[in-house]
Structure formats: structure tokens, C-alpha cells
Amino acid sequence: MAPPAQSQRSPSRPQPSGKSEVSDLKLQLRQLAGSRAPGVDDSKRELFKKVISYMTIGIDVSSLFGEMVMCSATSDIVLKKMCYLYVGNYAKVNPDLALLTINFLQRDCHDEDPMIRGLALRSLCSLRVANLVEYLVGPLGSGLKDSNSYVRMVAVIGVLKLYHISASTCVDADFPSILKHLMLNDSDTQVVANCLSALQEIWSAEASTSEEATRERETLISKPVIYYLLNRIKEFNEWAQCLVLELVTKYVPSDSSEIFDIMNLLEDRLQHANGAVVLATIKVFLHLTLSMTDVHQQVYERIKAPLLTLVSSGSPEQSYAVLSHLHLLVMRAPYIFSSDYKHFYCQYNEPSYVKRLKLEMLTAVANDSNTYEIVTELCEYAANVDIPIARESIRAVGKIALQQYDVNAIVDRLLQFLEMEKDYVTAEALVLVKDLLRKYPQWSHDCIAVVGNISSKNVQEPKAKAALLWMLGEYSQDMQDAPYILESLVENWDEEHSAEVRLHLLTAVMKCFFKRPPETQNALGAALAAGIADFHQDVHDRALFYYRILQYNVSVAERVVNPPKQAVSVFADTQSSEIKDRIFDEFNSLSVVYQKPSYMFTDKEHRGPFEFSDELGNLSIGGELADDVVSAQRVEENDKDLLLTTSEKEETRGSSSNDSAYTAPYDSSSASVFASQTQIESAISNPTAAGHSPQASLAIDDLLGLGIPSVPAAPSPQLKLNTKAALDPSTFQHKWRQLPVALSQEFLLSPQGVAALTAPQALLRHMQSHSIHCIASGGQSPNFKFFFFAQKAEESSNYLVECIINTSTAKAQIKVKADDQSTSQAFSTLFQSALSKFGIP
Q: What is the pLDDT of residue 575?
């Protein structure tokens, strides 16, 4: 019987095991090293490819180093490239092997072929071995003077690599001055761009230790250099144009005519096909016109069309990057974009991250003229198959309603959402109805009629259930079944896993008890008993607080837990004005895409200057006001209503804002609550001392005896400061970057202090008399900014303070950072005390 036929399939190629293959390659390379036979270069190519492939998959082929170097003696540029790749890979991990490459790389740096000269020079500089820097200086000097632009371009980047290996060698060889000469005189624009990039990096690093480097860095943003680069900007490629435009943003023109000259010169860059160039140009326009309100508004109008065009073209990722910048501008000046709201409608094929940004922008641009169309469009998205987008669209409708645009129609839409048989739609609508009732209490009758038909069993999401509980407690007198719904929820206390819901349930039962006591008595007793036994500390503390204040006095408890409400005029913003303005300062960067400043997402070693370094650049060291302070640009940036800065907007809103619906308004009816605050606190700490017996109808007698005896707090020792404290600016910067914010406060200045603060010097002398020293100051009336420091008298513990004073509102904002966090509050009290005495004789 014949044996079975073997399969005709060829076996898969075996992976190299390492030793035998490398030995074979070594033998073959050695045979070809000195050969000059025809076709030898093709054989070398095949062997080199094998070596590179082995190296790529992790096999150690460093033993072939000598043979590879010997085989590199050829004019074939492909072989040269593969050899340089091999050499660069193993020279980093084995500096001894790198010595073998110096001769042939230096020889190739003088080859007739400019491509080989450039590749050899790049490979030589890429070795990055500290003890070989002496071999780099000569080839780099020759490369910078080479007749071929490619070699010069490689040599410029090689200088930067040399600087990172040995900064002293680079500076001693006078390479920075050679790069400066090339930047201003070379005919090749890529060489000019590389010189600019390298000089910026070198002089920025040297500026901390060399005054000459600081002066040289400032010459980069001088008028002759800026105008030279701008006049050649059309010759640069896209990358180089962005580099030049970024440099222009740091230039401060002498007058308005110079600003218009620059803008006219860059006008055509707004029509560039590359989005990065357009964004870089927009950043220049925005920063140049910050101090010119009317022109700044015209810039917004001018850049609107290019941005909208970029959003609609290119890949979704590119569109998102541009849309993020457009989103930032829309949030700063929504009125300008209100007529273009249809550009922000979501397309069915757009990714969810693009749709989410567009929903935020639709919310921002809504006004009296376009609210109906925008809300109609958003309601269509509520039925979207993408559930997160459906949720966002419902929230957007609610936000528009909270902006007081066409409230009647929007409330009807939200109530229709409650009738949809979709859990996530009902959940989002409940949260928004709660917020609407906080702002528009007059709509309670219509809203409660619909909410009353919703079963609490069908609401599972914690935030939605908490909103429902708030309405059950707040409007229990209008909801017939409210006490019984709350009672059923209390009975299922252990099944509720969300602490937020349990907290709201406690408050809702308390409110309901004050309005319908007989029906809620048993539920309240059970809720307090369950709350005090709860494992969550916040729930336990709230239940114990309610119990003890009820023991003290029921009427006082009602004034505390269920005071008369004021309508909430403005809801708190999730992002501070300082962060928003910092993001705007970092326009055309990842900060805009991430919607957070760079220091929040970069490592400390890559942050460069610390968080307020760009502000300190406009402040004077040592307490004297700088002559060329430009912070006034931001102060006067938008004194009109249209383009107000974020901080000014919040300041305008803040006077009418109300933090929470649970906060009692300050009027005559609630004054008694504050007057009896001390009594309430003593009753909570020791209920039996109040002289009130617990009410039997509360069914909480079993909780008696849980009072916590009051322990008098030990008086804190008075903080004493060192009158001769000293701190240099670099240490201050380092500490400010490293230390977290211990506390942030805002308080009022005395009228005498406001009148005395016409210039910073008077305040600096006053604070110094209280052992608080100024390291930097700046600004002009009405806005001043200071950085103070102080030290403990008995130890070298530092306190750092950022103080922003607005004399028009008589407000001071401080941020305190401290080596010893435990004494931050004591120092803040001392600082405020010293500041309050300013101007008082």
C-alpha cells in the first residue's frame, strides 16, 4: 500500500531563532565587504534588509556592527540609509560600538553627493553619545556652510541635537550666532524655519542663566525680524508658516497703524487650504486687537466664514479640531454667531464627539430670534439612536429655557419628554424640570400635574430620582400622593444604593412633614432611624442633624430646612473664568481641544514656565510697576456687552445669583434663623441642654441618648511672620508651580483702601510693614495684580499669595499656597487683616 501523499502546501516561513541566522549573515557580509564584483550592491541590499528586519523584531544583531560598517563603503544611497539606521539604533545602547562609526560617518560628511552628506551628518548627530561631541563640531560647522540647502537644513537641526547633548559645547562653538546669521540671510525658507525653531529652543533654555541669551531671545520678536519673516511668509511651507505666525503673536506693535499693516499682510492666510495656518492667523488677529474693542469685534466677523468653511471640509478629526476653536469663540461672543446657527445643526453621519460640541454651540447662540428653530431641531435629536446625544439634546433644551428665551413653548416640550416611554428621556427631563421650577416657580402647577403621574419605580437613575424627590418635598401640598410615595421609598431604604438619593429622601420627608404632618409622621420617624443607622457618613450626619434640630424646636427646624425660596436667577458655571481666559490665551493648541489649560494635562517637566509666567512677564520684579505693562489690554478687552471677558460676565451675573434653592433668602422673615444660629448649634451638640423635650408624635424616642458632648476647641496659636523674609523670583516660581492651592477667597476692601490704591507702591509698603513682601506687581486702575510672599518667624515655611484687586467693585481675590497647609487659614486671616487696614490712618 502506497504511503499517503504529502500536502502540496508550502510550509510557512519559520521565524529566525537568532544565533544561526545571525552567524550566517555575518559570514555573508564579510564575504561581500571587500568585493567589487558586478551586482554586489544588490546582494548587500538583500542582506541589509534581513539585518534590519531581524533588528525590528527584536533579535540582537549588534555582533554584525563591524561587518555592516565595512559594507557601507559604497555609493549606493539605499545601502547608506539602511546602514545609518542600523548604526543609529545600536550606538545609543552601546557607546563603544559608536566609536567604530565615527570615521566612516565623517568621511561620508564630505561625500560628493549632497544627499549622502546630509544623511551622514544626521546620523552622526543622532548618535547622542556625550563623549563623542568633539567629533560633531567640525562636521556641523562645515554643514552650516554647505552649498546645498538640504545639508544646511540637516546641520541646523544637528546643532539643536548637539545643544541637548552638551549645551556648553554648542555655545562655545558660537553655533547660535551662526544660526541667527543663516536665519536672516539664507535663501532657503526651510533652513530659515529650522534656524528659527532651533534658536527659540536654545535661547529659551539659556535665558534662565544668561542675560545675553535673554536679549537674543527678545531680538526674535523685534520689528526687523518680524517684518523680515512676514514678508517671506508665502515662501514657507505650512509648518514654517505656523512657526512664524506663532512668533508674531508675541510681538507687540507700537501703534494701531502697525497692527493694521500686519493684518493686511496676513489677510490672504485666512483663505489658506491648511487649517493649521488659518488657526494660527486667527490667533494673531485676535491677540493683536485685544485692546481695540470695535476692531476685535470686526475680527470675529471676518474669521467666521473661514472657520465655518474648514468645519465643513476635511476629515471628522480635522473638523473637530477646528470646531473646538470655533466653540471657544462662540462661547466668548455668541451674539456674533447667532445668525449662523444652522451651521451647527448635527448631520446624521457625524461622530458623536462632533455632535456634542455642536449641541453646546446651539445652546450658546440661542436668542429671541432663533430659539423656536433651534429648540425644534434639538427635539428631533431626542429620538436619536445615539442615547448620549439624545441626552445632551434634552439638556440643551433645558439650558435654553434657563436663558429665558420663549419659556412657554420650551416648558411644553419638556413636559412632552416626560410622557415619552423611554427611561433615559424621562430621567433627563426630570432633572431639567427641577431646574426650571427653581427658576420659574410660577410653572409649578403645570409641571407637577405631569410629574405626579410618573411612578417612582420607573425612575432608576440617581440624579433623576433625586430630582423627583426634590419636587415631592417642595410641592408635597400640591401632590396628593406625595406622603405615600415617600413612605414607600423609606420602606425600601436598604434597596437604595445611591447616597445622593438617600440624602434627598431625608430632606423631602422633612419638607413634607412640615406641610402634611399627620400623613408623614411615621415616614419621618422611619427615615431618621434608617438615616442615623446608615453606613454613609453624610447620610448619617444629616439624619442626626435633622433629629436634633427637631428635638430643639420644630418651628426653627422648619425655617432651616424649608425656608421661603427665591427664584434662582443664574446657575453656577462649571468652569472658572480664569481657566476660560487661559484657554483663550492658548488658542491654536491642544488646550482648546481638551478644554483645559496646558498645565492641567502636561507633565511638570514639559510645562516650561510655571502657570502664571506669562502674567509675570508683564509684571515688575521687586515691587516696581513695569512701564510696558500690557495687562490693560485684557482689562479693556471688551468693555461693551457683546465681547465681555468671562470674568466680567460672571461679575455682572454674580450680583443676582443664588447658590442653591436650599439657601434661605436674607430678609426680615429669615433673620430670626441667623439670630438663633448659636442656640441651634448648642442644641445639636447637646440637645438636653436646650430645655426642650422631644415631641412624642415624632416617633423617634428610641434615638434619645445619642447626643455628642461638645468639646471646646483649643485656641489656635497666633501666627508670627519673619520681618526679614527673603525669596528670590526663581524659587517663588518653582514653589508656585509645585504647591497646590490651599484656599481661595474673595472679600471687600474698605473705601479708604480703594481710594488710596491709585498705584501699587503704596500698598506694597503697607503690606511690607506687616511682614508680607511683594515679589511682582502690575496692572493699572481699576485692576491690579500682586504676588506676595511671607515666612514664619520660627521656621523657614513660606506662604505664597496671588492677589487680584478691582477698585471699581472694591473686591479682592486671593489664592494662598503654603509649605505648611495647616496654617493657611491663619495666614489668610492675617493677610486680610493687614489688607483691611490699608488706607486707614
A: 67
